Amino acid sequence: MKCASSIESVGSGLPTLTTSRFRLRPLSQRDEDFYVSIYTDEALMRFVGQPMTPASASDAFQVFLRSNERGNLRSACCWIIEVPGAETVGLLALIPHADAAEIGVMVSDAWQGRKVAQETIGFFTGYLFRHSECTRTFSRHTRTNEAGAGVMRRLGFTEMQEVPGGNAFRGWEMTREAWREREGTVRQVLA
């Protein structure tokens, strides 16, 4: 997937990133209410796992804030997905694992079905492969999330045999090599 992009420096912290439709800006203190509302919403969490309590979600938010300050893609990081000058759409999180980087996207109810996850996961996978030492990314969702599976297939991710979190989840991975091949194919088609 090819997305127009730009990177806006934010000093020593994480960068603000821009896709063709969205701005991904590092999570900040003003985002706590939105973050907590996403992770405590039963309807939104049904495809991810159990909803958090407000206190647990607030604690997780504070952990991301501290981690974001380091500006290190080898640490857990979180961005707000927003329409520039308009509304907050969702969250994108990066969770490093020993052998890969997990990308998770949570989209507000009002933006469901509008290809937010497809655009941001596709963009962020390319960003990681271009700007980090990461050689494999993955995303996961509950087995009942067929829309999520469709997104990952369209992006060219391959279904994983073993998924962190066990059999309740489906996982999808992309290696740096597969991404390079896919990017080369996309460029040829667009030329």
Radius of gyration: 16 Å
Largest sheet: 9 strands, mixed
Order of helices and strands: EEEHHHEEEHEHEEH
Low-confidence parts: 1-11
Shape estimate: globular
CATH architecture: 3-Layer(aba) Sandwich
Q: CATH-wise, what's the superfamily?
A: Gcn5-related N-acetyltransferase (GNAT)
Number of DSSP E strands: 9
Structural class: alpha+beta
Strand order of the largest sheet: 1-2-3-4-5-6-7-9-8
- What is the count of distinct domains? 1
| Oligomer category | single chain
Helix fraction bin: 25-40%
The name of the CATH topology is: Aminopeptidase
- CATH top level class name: Alpha Beta
In angstroms, what separates the terminal alpha carbons? 14 Å
> Roughly what is the average pLDDT, rounded to an integer?
88
Total of DSSP H or I helical runs spanning 4+ residues: 6
Task: Explain what this protein looks like in three dimensions.
The protein has 191 residues and is an alpha+beta fold. The chain has a single domain, classed as Aminopeptidase (3-Layer(aba) Sandwich). 36% of the residues lie in helices and 25% in strands. Helix 4 links the parallel strand 6 (101-107) and strand 7. Helix 1 crosses helix 3. The longest helix is centred in the first third of the chain and has 17 residues, at 54-70. The chain is globular, with a radius of gyration of 16 Å.
